[in-house]
Amino acid sequence: MTNDKLATQIIASLNTSKISMAEEQHKKLHIAVFPWLAFGHLGPFFELAKLIAQKDHKVSFISTPRNIHRLSNVPENSQPLVDLIELPLPHVDKLPENAEATVDIPHHIVPYLKKAYDGLEEPLTKFLERCKPDWIVHDFAPHWLPPICSKLGISCIFFGIFSASGQSFILDLLMRKTSESPEDKALLDVLAEQDESGVSDMFRIIQTLNGAQVLAPRSCMEIEGESLKLLEGICRKPVIPVGLLPPSQQFSEDSNDGNWDTILNWLDKQEKGSVIYVAFGSEVTLSDEEFTEIAMGLELSDFPFFWVLKKQNTSAVQSQDWVVNESKRGMVWRTWAPQLRILAHKSVGGFLTHCGWSSVIEGLQVGCPLIMLPFQNEQYLIARLMEEKGVGIKVAKNEHDGKFTRDSVAQALRSVMLEEEGRTYRSQAEEMSKIFGDKKLHQNYVDEFVNYMEIHRPAIKD
């Protein structure tokens, strides 16, 4: 071979490598992720961010400093691809210092947190102008974001952390703006009410959804096929489910080995399948009467229970003290607890839950049957769906005033934990775990979601 031919081959090879590298670089996406300031939102958004990074795309996860520090660790192999972007939360009157998430404040202060969140518009805009990501995955709250992204050539994805059935119900209600049902009318009034942030939740949802190119629900066809089809009909835009995102890691706030050792030591002393795990998330506030009826119902059921009681759940201090000091069979845990690890423990036989979507996913991920006590909005729809699936039972409520009693709580607990009927719930929950806990299935949904972003990436920006 002559020197000229050899040189020609080397140059051709180098050019091919350059083209290959350029194509590879072109395929890489930069995705910004911007959740609302609530743990129930931060968790799924962060889980999705980590899964996108595992597909070898760069992710900028954007939140406030305290929330960033409360996240679990990014897996070592994904760390180079995940940037944690801290935007300081602007000061707002009536919002306590260091309050950066709904868990830090009582419910009536949340509108001020929304006002502070809206104050992130300027620093977020500067970040987007500087970094120009291909996509931004956002929540319901930043109504001001779509016009900014449109101007910058950034495509928007509305990530809905709620069930598809919940989202289709809410969106249908918002589109119709009327209902014959008194409960639906009451919900519509709440969503349409302009709060101290200056806008209503209805306005936020409509603006962010209309401005998004894609709706990505936390759902899957195997559980909510009909609702996903309905959602696409309502939105009239692509609906790309991301799967259920069964969590692999949890927030690390207030968790340490000592805490888990204490919890584990207590659980290990209980008989297999005998413990009721009780948790109502961080958004549910119980009245004194509700708290007392739940506490007495647990006592009446005669089962050991582990109750994660957050300060937002109740102000019934005397009742709390009674449960802590007088309960013969229960343990009350007042700080953050590793929910998934507790639910997976062999001693836990049932989950008394408010039916938040994340909680239901975690419970059924490990095959734990549900005792369902929904309090608001989507929770009722999820409870109905799960009852249809046969994985649990709802606590009976009075038809006239919607109240439950200690006896109805105890009866529901016994139905799942003890009686013949409970075997069916336990069996169905175990069967449902094959879908809820199927990592491969839900990874496939993430793969399809990422594939959609790759194919439909925006035109190259200057």
Automatic annotation (TrEMBL):
Domain of life: Eukaryota
Sequence intervals crossing the membrane: none
Gene3D superfamilies the UniProt entry points to: Glycogen Phosphorylase B
PROSITE patterns assigned to the protein according to its UniProt record, in alphabetical order: UDPGT (PS00375)
InterPro entries: UDP-glycosyltransf_plant, UDP_glucos_trans, UDP_glycos_trans_CS
Keyword Signal applies: no
Keyword flag Mitochondrion: no
E.C. code: 2.4.1.-
Record-linked PANTHER family: GLYCOSYLTRANSFERASE, UDP-GLYCOSYLTRANSFERASE 91B1
Record's protein name: Glycosyltransferase
Gene for this chain: UGT48
